[in-house]
Every structure is written in C-alpha cells, then in structure tokens.
C-alpha cells in the first residue's frame, strides 16, 4: 500500500498554485494523524461514463454530480442496478464539480465558470445562481453552512443563502498545508476530503484544519476493472442513518461501501 508520507514527498502537500512551499504555524505538540485501512462491506455497480465530481446520500437516495464539458449532470443512482436518473444538466460549455443537498435545495459548483447553481429538489428547476472567485472543486454541508474546496489547501465556510465566504481554513498535515483538496463529505462532525490524484482521503477537524486521520484506499478498485478511461478516486457519500460510507472514482465501474479501521 502507498504510505501517506510518499504523497508528501510527491509535492501534493505543497501549499500554493505558484509552487512555493508554505507552512502553517506549528502547534507546540503537532497532532499525529491516525492511519486507517478499509474493509469492503458491499460492492455496487457504477456507470463508467460518469466522471464523478460530487457524491451525497440523502433522502434515501444516492446523488451524483459529474464533470466534463457537454456531459456535466446531476443524477440519482439506484444502488442495486447502478442505473442513473437525470435530475439537472449543465450548459454544454460548463464543467460540473461538487454537489451537496441542504434543506429543499441542491447546490452544484462549476470548475472554472465561477458559478454555483441552486436547484429545487422537488422539480429540478434552477432557482438561483451565485458567483464566486477562483475554481470550484468540492462541496458539502454540516446541515447549516456549506464547505467548499477550490484545489488549494483552503476550505471555505459559505453562507448558503448568499454564497458569501465567511471563513477560510487552511488544512494541514503535521504542520504542512495540503494542496489539491477535492471532493468533500461531512461525517460525524469531521470533514473528509479526497486528495486529488492519490488513493488517500484525509479526515479534517473543521475548526482548525488539522488532519486527524488518513484513510488509505489503495487497491480498492481491482486491476481487472481498470480501463484506459478509468480515472482517479473521487467521491465520498455518507448514509448517516445507516452509518454507511460510500466511495467511488471518476469513470469507475464500481461503487464501494466501506468501513475503516486503524492500522
């Protein structure tokens, strides 16, 4: 299995798009993140045509936002068959990113269009459109606020009514800022984030940005399921009532229900 330290050496834990190394102020006693492995509890089919950007389990259904120009949609997924039902489609020129559901609304980011769309959950009709600076990557909610990533080490706390950023939190692993934070999920008071291009998910204290755990999912997609179209791990969803964690990847053939254990 890959060790998270190797990711650190690869440069993904550098802080800025400019490539300069940046360090947060080190606490007197740095947190030693827990290391987790996984066990697959169930395997479900997943459409290999879906370039997964956002994933959420809500209302007894799995919701997925996909990317790629001309192919970006929001859809619901039947766990048993993998069949997708279209909910909303982005304009041809826009590239979909993270999604989240809050109340009776669904929020969707775009990658470089600087737009967030808000849909009515009952009708699928777009009811609002917000602008934001920089790129859109991952999106989740704690039930009150939104949390947004943009590919940098920063997580933004966002007001869902206005889409204004209320707080910026820099995510750090042993004092070093982590770049490429991607798809997000809120699980039991913690932020989970895919680290783009890796097989790792980091578990973050949302108040401090400190990484408290690393889940290594190396090898979860069997080699025989990997095709030239298969892309990276991306997509985390949590069924709070059933205590189920789902993960998948871009153009993956499978969606996995997992449980994690300390190494």
Rough shape?
A: globular
CATH T-level topology: Methylamine Dehydrogenase, Chain H
Q: What proportion of the residues is helical, as a percent range?
A: under 10%
- How many individual helices? 1
User: H/E order of the elements?
Assistant: HEEEEEEEEEEEEEEEEEEEEEE
CATH architecture: 7 Propeller
Number of DSSP strands?
A: 22
Mean pLDDT: 90
Taking pLDDT < 50 over at least 5 consecutive residues as the criterion, the unreliable ranges are 1-6, 14-22
Alpha carbon gap, first and last residue: 12 Å
| Oligomeric state of the chains in view | single chain
Count of folded domains: 1
Name the descriptors.
four-stranded antiparallel sheet; 22 strands; 263 residues; mainly beta; eight-stranded mixed sheet
Task: Give a short synopsis of this structure.
This protein has one helix and 22 strands.
Q: How would you describe this structure to a colleague?
A:
This protein has one domain: Methylamine Dehydrogenase, Chain H, CATH 2.130.10.10. Helices cover 3% and strands 49% of the residues. It is built from one helix and 22 strands. The protein has one helix spanning 4-10; strands at 34-45, 52-58, 61-66, 73-77, 84-89, 96-102, 105-110, 115-120, 126-131, 139-141, 146-149, 154-158, 165-170, 172-173, 176-177, 181-187, 190-195, 200-204, 211-216, 233-239, 244-249, 254-262. It has an eight-stranded mixed β-sheet, with no helix packed on it.
């Amino acid at each position: 299995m890959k060790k998270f330290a190797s990711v650190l050496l690869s440069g993904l834990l550098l802080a800025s798009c400019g490539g300069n190394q940046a360090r947060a102020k080190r606490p007197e006693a740095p947190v030693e993140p827990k290391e987790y492995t996984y066990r697959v509890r169930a395997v479900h089919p997943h459409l290999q045509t879906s370039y997964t950007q956002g994933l959420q389990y809500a209302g007894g259904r799995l919701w997925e936002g996909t990317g790629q120009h001309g192919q970006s949609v929001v859809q619901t997924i039947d766990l048993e068959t993998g069949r997708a039902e279209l909910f909303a489609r982005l304009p041809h020129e826009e590239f979909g990113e993270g999604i989240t559901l809050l109340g009776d609304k669904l929020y969707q980011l775009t990658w470089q269009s600087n737009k967030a769309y808000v849909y009515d959950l009952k009708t699928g009709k777009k009811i609002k459109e917000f602008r934001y600076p920089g790129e859109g990557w991952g999106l989740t909610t704690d039930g009150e606020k939104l949390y947004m990533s943009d590919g940098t080490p920063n997580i933004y706390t966002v007001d869902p009514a206005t889409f204004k950023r209320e707080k910026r939190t820099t995510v750090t692993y042993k004092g070093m800022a982590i770049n490429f934070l991607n798809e997000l999920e809120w699980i039991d008071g913690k932020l989970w984030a895919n680290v783009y291009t890796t097989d790792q998910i980091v578990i973050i204290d949302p108040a401090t940005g400190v990484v408290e755990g690393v889940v290594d999912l190396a090898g979860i997609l069997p080699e025989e399921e990997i095709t030239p179209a298969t892309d990276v791990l991306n997509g985390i969803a949590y069924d709070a009532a059933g205590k189920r964690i789902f993960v998948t990847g871009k153009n993956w053939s499978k969606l996995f229900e997992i449980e994690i254990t300390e190494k």
